[in-house]
Amino acid sequence: MSLLEVSDISKSFSTGRDFLGRRTGWTHAVQNVSFHLGTGECLAVVGESGAGKSTVGRIVLRLIEPDTGSIAFDGQDVRAATPTQLRALRRGMQMIFQDPHSSLDPRMSILDAVAEPLVVHTGLDRKTRTATVRTLLDKVGIGDRYLARYPAELSGGQLQRVAIARALTLKPKMIVCDEPVAALDVSVRSQVLNLLRDLQEELGLAYLFVCHDLALIEVIADRVLVMAGGRVVESGTVEDIYHNPQQEYTQKLLAAIPVPVPRSARH
Ligand SMILES: Nc1ncnc2c1ncn2[C@@H]1O[C@H](COP(=O)(O)OP(=O)(O)O)[C@@H](O)[C@H]1O
Ligand SMILES: [Mg+2]
């Protein structure tokens, strides 16, 4: 059994209403999507903007309710979870968003931001929490010199490292990473990607790695799900998708990569 089993999920959003308030249009954001994710594995969800990638990530975490389909995490039915069960499930699955400026509260110090999940979910005392935060900030390459600082004082790359530390506090089994480097300077993207990969190896984390850029996933993904218009158009190992894409859509996405895939990696 996989850590995460997603079966046949669909979600439509209403896009308009007439003068009587009746719904007039629907966006089929996600249509009959199924996949699985093993412990310690990284599944990249790729596709152009509007493909439904973020909606899939949010449905998995039950931040959005799907119209149909089922989700099992660690053997538990996510959709049927009671509030108490969901609270426990949420310790095991965390999320990192694209823009760390908007995912971190500007009025909270770095120490408080990273410690917050420990306050909410554990009975650890302040001293132990601070020690845990120091260890985590060390792990993500920030060190403890920013403990008392506020988000506005850090760069985008540093803030994303803080967001990663925060996501790790409760020792999750899976992190949904939604375009985690897209908002960062090109110069720090690979550093943050490498950090995510190193943490994955060290901690045995599974990632659902949402990304619109196929060029970024080669270093981190094991398997790839290609989405277009809310549907899965192709899936396979990262080698399959890079070297032997079956669908024209995937071939086009690959052709859009500015730097060619190294020749050594081709057949
Ligand atoms: N809350 C929402 N209300 C209405 N439409 C939405 C909402 N969220 C997403 N959509 C629509 O669903 C589609 C898929 O969106 P999204 O999952 O964000 O795609 P992606 O992350 O691949 O760019 C898009 O057409 C988007 O406009
Ligand atoms: Mg998105």
TrEMBL record:
One of its GO terms (molecular function) is ATP binding. Keywords: ATP-binding, Nucleotide-binding, Transport. Residues 4-254 form the ABC transporter domain. GO terms for biological process: transmembrane transport. Belongs to the ABC transporter superfamily. This is ABC transporter ATP-binding protein.
